[in-house]
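>> received
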Amino acid sequence: MSPSNTVDHPDISALMEQLAQSQNVQLELDRRIFNLKTLYDVSKDIFSSTDSAAILRSFLLMVMGNFGVAEGVVMLFDQNDGEADLYSAVGINSEDIPGLKPCLQRDFATTAGPVGGSEPPNGAAGDTGCGPLAMVFPFRVDEYIVGTLGLGPKLIDEHYDDNDRELIKTLVNNLSIALQNARAIEEIKNLNQHLEAKNVELEKALDELKAALRRVEILEGIKSNLCKFVPTAVTRLMECSPGGEIQEAEERDISVLFLDIEGYTRMTEELGAVEVNNLTERYFSVFMDAIYQNNGDVVETAGDGLMVLFMTDDATRHALEAVQAAATIRQNTQSINAECTQGRDPVIINIGISSGRAFVGASKFESYTGGRWTYTSHGTITNVAARLCGQASGGEVLVSRDTAKRTHGSFAYDHLGPVKLKNLSEEIEVFALEAMH
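>> returned
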């Protein structure tokens, strides 16, 4: 046998083995390149959108194209109620979808594992029991949402192998991440919309608050101006009954003070109306301080006089306050007279005070022109106070027996005895407040 016909069989076997290994390596390399390209293409497509429905549609089309299948479906389920949350299907009749839902749910329930499992299932291939689907692959999106990918048979009549399942596993992992991102962005959008709606509500509430504050400012301005013309008691009634329900007069224990300027008519003739008005404002402005410092409330005014109510709940206290106000007014009158009497006679203020029970509150007078409310007091003690003021002269402060009795521990009086007052049927005991030294 010649040497040229000799074959080294061990060398050939080794070469054949190396060639086979090289082919396997090349196939594995091609497979990995294909998988990477598929992963890149699918990921690029699904991560470019933030709409869950668009992501499912793009993912399904890309996966079907890469595996060469004509039917496919991907469906998401709410794990709390088992309802299909969202799905996308290609090559499957819409009327067949309801029949696939239980199958896809069943497959997830039997293969997906517990919530929070780190590894999704590897899927079922072959006879899936899900109609036209040859591959069913459950996956998890998050704690509440699960899903299933279903693919029909390959058009090249190949079965799904482990490599296919490994690639699908990687792809659905990326799908889960893309859906999580989309849901997070959607939640952020919803929160932003909710925040915008709340901002609109807050702006509206702020505008309403500003309008309300403006109304309050206007009302406070009205109240401030109104206080210049109405008694303080009326202002308090308005605050307690903003709807306009005015409580009618009721009987209560009060002290009533009347004061007037002696010789007012003669003074007006001698000095003129303008000068007398300025003079009255000067004196009465000082009197107001004494009245309000002692919780008095001016309810009526005339050109030469005032009617003042003292209505503190304690009977002794309001009598003391009335007499104290009168004593202060008498002192203030003397002080002003000492400063401003050049060229004229001093102003003389006479005062009458009575204490006891009277009807106090709002009284309404109706006429064809409408109704009018007044706030004052009625009764004998009011009449007595007015008559005492008319009886006083030379700057006297005359008080009734009840007033003197309640205040004798703080003030000294001269007993003038029983006096017959105008329009009163019986004489009453009258006391004159002694001058304070």
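>> DSSP finds ten helices and 13 strands in the chain.
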